[in-house]
Amino acid sequence: MPLPEPVYTEGTAGRTGLPDHDFYSSGTLTTAFLGTALEFRDQTNPGSGVLFLSQGMIFANDGASDIEFSWDGVLVTGVVKPGEVLTFDNRHKEGVFIRGTGGGGQAYRFWAW
Questions:
Q1: Would 29 be classed as within a structural domain?
Q2: In degrees, to the nearest 5, what angle opens at C-alpha 100 toward C-alphas 98 and 101?
Q3: pTM for the whole structure
Q4: CA–CA separation, 42 vs 65, rounded Å?
Q5: Are the C-beta atoms of residues 42 and 21 closer than 8 Å to each other?
Q6: Is residue 62 situated within a structural domain?
Q7: Quick one: pLDDT at residue 35?
Q8: What is the DSSP letter of 6?
Q9: How many domains does the chain have?
Q10: Which candidate, 26, 24, 58, places its Cα nearest to that of 43?
Q11: Backbone angle region of 105, left / alpha / beta, with phi > 0 → left and psi within -120 to 50 → alpha
């Protein structure tokens, strides 16, 4: 049996084709995962709110202490050191939990596509 046809949408340049989803978040972190649970909702087409599986991600630590991230909000999956940029390719997730380790106000930037 053939696979179902992929969902087609209007892209950012007005062309039609495979969905082009983008997510961006920035701000400051608390020391709890519950403070920053990032759910990948499409920002390419404003107002669509489509939840998507990422193809890749970038974590940028703009602060002075470590950023920890988790896929489930409980176990620490990895750490991004101060000034470090961490890139994942072919990482299929619907969201991520992140927190700072140095108290309040840890600056971050995050992209998913």
A1: yes
A2: 130
A3: 0.80
A4: 29
A5: yes
A6: yes
A7: 78
A8: P
A9: 1
A10: 24
A11: left
Q: Which residues of the chain have pLDDT under 50?
A: none
User: Is residue 85 in a domain?
Assistant: yes
Contacts of 97 (CB under 8 A, 6+ apart): 33, 34, 36, 37, 38, 69, 70, 71, 72, 73
Tokens of 90: 């072919």
What is the distance between the alpha carbons of residues 80 and 78, in angstroms, rounded to a whole number? 7
- Domain-located, residue 80: yes
Torsion angle in degrees (nearest 10) through CA of 67, 56, 6, 15: 110
Secondary structure letter of residue 34 according to DSSP? G
What CATH number should be reported for the domain holding residue 43? 2.60.120
pLDDT at 48: 73
Q: Which two tokens stand for residue 20?
A: 């082009």
pLDDT > 90: what percent of the chain?
A: 62
Burial of 97 (0-12, 13-18, 19+ CB in 10 A): buried
Type of residue numbered 37: A
pLDDT digits (tens, 9 = 90+) for 39-52: 999 887 767 778 88
